[in-house]
Design goal:
The complex is a heterodimer of chains A (305) and B (238). Chain A has helices at 2-12, 18-44, 57-82, 107-112, 118-139, 155-178, 206-211, 224-249, 254-287, and strands spanning 54-56, 294-297, 301-304. By secondary structure, chain A is mostly helical. Chain B has helices at 2-12, 14-19, 28-36, 50-53, 55-58, 61-80, 90-99, 104-131, 140-162, 167-181, 187-196, 203-234, and one strand at 47-49. The longest helix of chain B has 32 residues, at 203-234. The two termini of chain B are 42 Å apart. The chains are: A mainly alpha (305), B mainly alpha (238). The complex binds protoporphyrin IX containing FE.
């Protein structure tokens, strides 16, 4: 027991991990407060946006800025006095630490390296995240809920963003920081990080697991049945599914009508990509599925998804 | 009483009035003037909506991000006095900062924790803007500016991560740049070559990260922050 606590404390109290613990608490606290306000607004139906009355910046805003500045300076001073920034051994290109981790805000992406090829996890995903974020105001068709906390008026937008933020960003950072030890193996936070741990895990590609169809032939070329099946699954998920939803609901749903095909298509593809990540993680962790689709063009372009 | 008279004389003196053109902020007019005659307060309008002053609405998160950036600029400038971006000196300079320079340890701690805090607070600010739907018309473009600021914030933090030149720095950056290298058609190799000034994280990479961290990215961030604040006002305020 005391060993477990000790290990737990070791990892929590690493100086660079302190902000993560702090942020975890802040995020949860903030989301709770936001939802509390949203619930109140939704119940009362009086939205703060209607309060258009103005007050003078001096002193009302300047006072708040002054107070906030002082509080921040105090917090940072106490933090900087009590916890020292880490400084490890001098850089040594010949000695790779195990595990080597990127800074905390990239650990979600580093975790994705487990499930996807590096260029997909490290380049394509971040590109889609940034593009997706930029598109948010242009694809959200809902004019309501501007300027106050609400859930009822925009349930889809709020849930999607909250889940994306809390699960795909915060949770993956926690996982990557506290539970990925040597060899990027999974360790419980109270487990000792044994650098010699070897886990006999064989991950199998999806179609081999289901039908016994290998991803590559004996001569190293791609197995075409697998390429077709995997491609059908991915294209079906990202293209046919949105098209089918559009066909089926464009007359019935006023939201879809208002969005139009282009906005709906972009929203659907981004949403399904996001939803695909936890599905792939689940397939790997629960069934040791390595890839769903193994495909490449030429010597350079590979889609191991 | 006596003291007030002296102060009164100070506040009406020519020198004082040359610095602050307005009278004491005791009338609404003088309060308004305190804002628009003052360079630093001039980012604000004279009046703001009551809603935007409610702490439970914005949590002051955008302002906090900007405040942390100022702290980082000041502590960063001081750190630059003691730090040389070369493989043979960098780590030793860090050790000096920790053990030799007066308050060097405090300075470094302050810089590092503010940097972590800025990344976290910028993300929280984005979450609040989303929850309150504040990206909706006419504020769409300011959200875009915000996303770019978020990317810049992360890049600032990431380029600074290499500078101590310890194991944490070296391998943290190696993990990241190796991901970039995986872009197909040789583009990834070119990109990482451009960023590192070579094929490995070495002397050239350190200098490049230093210039990005201390010059290019802060300037870009400052310019975009200016645009961001300006747009907050032009889009009708918070
Ligand atoms: C370096 C990073 C950033 C700084 C210094 C910054 C600063 C600010 C400040 C001071 C405000 C005024 C209201 C408030 O404090 O909440 C604001 C508003 C705003 N920010 Fe940011 N911000 C940053 C990043 C972002 C990001 C990442 C986003 C979104 C992706 C964003 C989107 C917005 C929008 C849309 C507003 C208008 C909000 C409203 O009118 O209610 N900003 N920002």
């Amino acid at each position: 027991m005391s060993d477990a606590l000790h290990n737990f404390w070791l990892i929590l109290s690493k100086p660079d991990n302190v902000p993560i613990v702090l942020m975890m608490i802040l995020v949860i606290f903030y989301c709770w407060l936001a939802f509390k306000q949203a619930r109140r607004n939704d119940r009362l139906g009086v939205f703060e946006a209607t309060q258009a009355d103005k007050v003078q910046v001096w002193p009302y805003l300047v006072k708040i800025e002054f107070l906030v500045t002082i509080i921040v300076l105090i917090v940072l001073t106490v933090w900087a006095i009590t916890i020292n920034a880490p400084l490890e051994e001098a850089a040594n290109p010949t000695l790779t630490p195990n595990p080597s981790k990127a800074p905390w805000y990239f650990l979600g992406l580093q975790e994705m390296l487990v499930y996807f090829d590096p260029w997909i996890a490290g380049v394509m995903l971040p590109t889609f995240i940034i593009v997706g974020l930029i598109l948010v105001p242009y694809i959200d068709p809902n004019p309501k809920g501007n300027g106050y906390y609400t859930f009822k008026e925009r349930p889809f937008a709020i849930s999607t963003f909250a889940i994306g933020f809390l699960i795909l960003w915060v949770l993956l950072i926690i996982l990557g920081t506290f539970m990925r030890g040597p060899g990027w193996y999974y360790f419980w936070p109270w487990e000792y990080w044994d650098t010699h741990r070897v886990v006999a895990l064989t991950n199998i590609d999806l179609w081999e697991k289901i039908f016994g169809i290998p991803s590559k032939n004996v001569d190293g070329s791609f197995n075409l049945i697998q390429v077709a099946l995997g491609g059908a699954l991915i294209i079906g998920w990202l293209a046919l599914l949105p098209m089918w939803i559009w066909k089926k609901y464009k007359e019935k749903s006023s939201v879809l009508k208002q969005m139009g095909a282009l906005k709906f298509g972009m929203t659907a593809v981004l949403f399904l990509m996001m939803a695909g990540l936890p599905i792939k993680m689940f397939l790997r962790l629960a069934f040791n599925i390595k890839y769903i689709w193994v495909f490449g063009v030429g010597h350079d372009l590979f889609f191991n998804i | 009483m006596e003291k007030n008279k002296t102060l009164g004389r100070l506040f009406t003196s020519r020198v004082w009035r040359s610095v602050f053109r307005h009278g004491l902020p005791i009338s609404n007019r003088a309060r308004a003037e305190s804002v628009f005659y003052n360079f630093f307060l001039h980012v604000h309008p004279v009046k703001v909506r009551k809603r935007s002053l409610k702490i439970t609405y914005t949590w002051a998160l955008g302002g906090l991000t900007a405040g942390l950036f100022i702290i980082l600029t000041l502590t960063g400038a001081l750190l630059m006095l003691y730090y040389r971006p070369s493989v043979s000196e960098a780590y030793a300079d860090m050790k000096d900062l920790q053990f030799v320079v007066s308050s060097g340890l405090f300075l470094r701690n302050m810089h590092r924790w503010s940097a972590h805090a800025m990344v976290a607070v910028a993300f929280l600010h984005m979450l609040r803007v989303f929850y309150t739907g504040s990206y909706k018309p006419p504020k769409e473009f300011n959200w875009v500016v915000g996303v770019i600021l978020l990317v810049l914030t992360i890049l600032l933090s990431y380029t600074g991560y290499l500078l101590p030149w310890d194991q944490l720095a070296f391998w943290g950056i190696s993990v990241g740049t190796n991901m970039a290298r995986a872009v197909p058609f040789g583009i990834g190799d070119k990109m990482s070559y451009l960023l590192l000034g070579g094929n490995i994280v070495g002397e050239n990479a350190l200098v490049r990260f230093y210039v990005l961290h201390c010059f290019i990215l802060p300037i870009a961030t400052m310019v975009l922050m200016g645009v961001h604040f300006w747009r907050v006002r032009k889009d009708g305020g918070v």
